Amino acid sequence: STARNADLPRWLDWFNKSRPHSALNGLSPFSRVNDLLRTHT
């Protein structure tokens, strides 16, 4: 639907950057990716 498509970018931002993930000890997936990039550069 149009409403879903309009909200998708905001939801994806939350899902990847803000959402705490239990397998990452409460960190967001995005914070883990940033750490990996620093570790392997």
UniProtKB/TrEMBL annotation:
Domain (Integrase catalytic): residue spans on this chain: 5-29
Q: InterPro entries this protein is in?
A: Integrase_cat-core
Q: Name one GO biological process term.
A: DNA integration
Q: Which domain of life is it from?
A: Bacteria
State what protein this is by name: Transposase
